Amino acid sequence: MAGIYLHIPFCDKKCIYCGFYSVVSKTLRDKYIPALQREIRERGNFFSSLYPADQTVKTLYIGGGTPSVLNTESLKQAINGLKATFCFPNTAFLTDNPDEFEFTIEVNPDDITSDYASQLRQLGVNRISMGVQSFQDQHLIWMGRRHTRSQAISAFRTLRQAGFKNISLDLIFGFPSLTRTQWEENLDTILDLSPEHISAYQLGVDPNTPIEKQVSQGKLTLPDEETCEGMYKTLQRRLAEAGYFQYEVSNFCKEGFHSRHNSSYWNRTPYLGLGPGAHSFINRKREWNFPDAATYCNPTITELREGENLSPEDVFNEILMLGLRTIGGAALKTLRESSPQSDIFISTIAPAIQDQERKGNLVLTTTGTIKIPPEKFFISDGIIRELFV
Ligand code: SF4
């Protein structure tokens, strides 16, 4: 089984917190799909080292940037290029069953019209991920988002009317003007809409963002950890009460609606990333395309990426990090099989595992899996750091 990520590196406006690679300029948009087609052709053999059955692409994720700034005709050309090059299940692009094929696209609420939503359905999209971030207009203005609360709610309803039965909404917490009451109100609204999937992230300070500048100049103070932890616990409690299952630190879903594509990152399934800034993974090798749309769109430039072979330590740490952020944890068997040196690595981290167990931060199950209990997910990054070899 394999996955493809397709990056659309364009936004109509940059949000003040965003560290993802995207450009606002519209001059490259016409050149982008031909450039993507070139990379699709060049990467046609990417999965060929896998067994034939494993080469089937079971998840396709179009992210950004803001994919919904492109018209569906442009998206269709890219998808046709993928269909002509890679192996998809027979039912792909026709099914609503994410186990057969999951096809997600990220959208911004203000791009959604009835026509656009219907056209996405016709392309075979069966899962929508919509960046809402807050249902309060003053927060959206502060973040630099393009949409309003009412546009987000109306876009959700439009997507439903177009037939989307698998919608994920994103929220952000832990930013300066968000009060606990407003956070509860955001949760009230999202639960009223009842999407199949919710992702919720604590605001981070990414390098080279306006937020980083404001924080470093002392013009912005982020809420303290206790406040953020309180909001995270409220999130966990409210979503659990509403029947959502937390399957990863930042991700919650109704039964059966976990993101297959993101789960495959955490399971270390091979995936191909296309577009500037996109990452790929196969056979213990990670590659990343240079985050430069102008270079990417220049047909005379053929050096688009670099990569590295992961060391046994890297592989071991990745299995730990990705596994421990999920509800399933990291299996000792998988760690043990990761390299000939893994037994040494496990002995090296055994005292740290025991120490974290004593503190209640880790659980070692009878089936040989180490897990972070969900009530400790908020401090998962710190716990995981203690275990790295
Ligand atoms: S958060 Fe999304 S819409 Fe905002 S700048 Fe980043 S990629 Fe673009």
If you had to describe this structure to a student in words, what would you say it looks like?
The chain has 389 residues and is α/β, with parallel strands linked by helices. It has helices spanning 29-42, 72-85, 114-123, 137-143, 149-161, 180-193, 210-216, 225-241, 260-266, 293-296, 312-324, 332-336, 342-358, 380-387, and strands spanning 2-8, 57-64, 102-107, 127-133, 167-173, 197-202, 245-248, 251-253, 271-274, 279-282, 285-289, 305-309, 330-331, 363-364, 369-371. The protein folds into 2 domains: 2-266, TIM Barrel (Alpha-Beta Barrel), CATH 3.20.20; 311-389. Helix content is 39%, strand content 19%. The strands form 3 sheets. Strands 7-8-6-5-4-3-2-1-9 form a 9-stranded mixed β-sheet, sandwiched between helices. The protein is globular and about 55 Å long. The two termini are 29 Å apart. The chain binds iron/sulfur cluster. Iron/sulfur cluster binds at residues 11, 14-15, 18, 20, 22, 64-66, 108, 131.
List the helices and strands and how they pair.
Layout: E1 2-8, H1 29-42, E2 57-64, H2 72-85, E3 102-107, H3 114-123, E4 127-133, H4 137-143, H5 149-161, E5 167-173, H6 180-193, E6 197-202, H7 210-216, H8 225-241, E7 245-248, E8 251-253, H9 260-266, E9 271-274, E10 279-282, E11 285-289, H10 293-296, E12 305-309, H11 312-324, E13 330-331, H12 332-336, H13 342-358, E14 363-364, E15 369-371, H14 380-387
Parallel strand pairs: 1-2, 1-9, 2-3, 3-4, 4-5, 5-6
Antiparallel strand pairs: 6-8, 7-8, 10-11, 11-12, 13-15, 14-15
Helix pairs in contact: 1-2, 2-3, 6-8, 11-14
This protein binds iron/sulfur cluster.
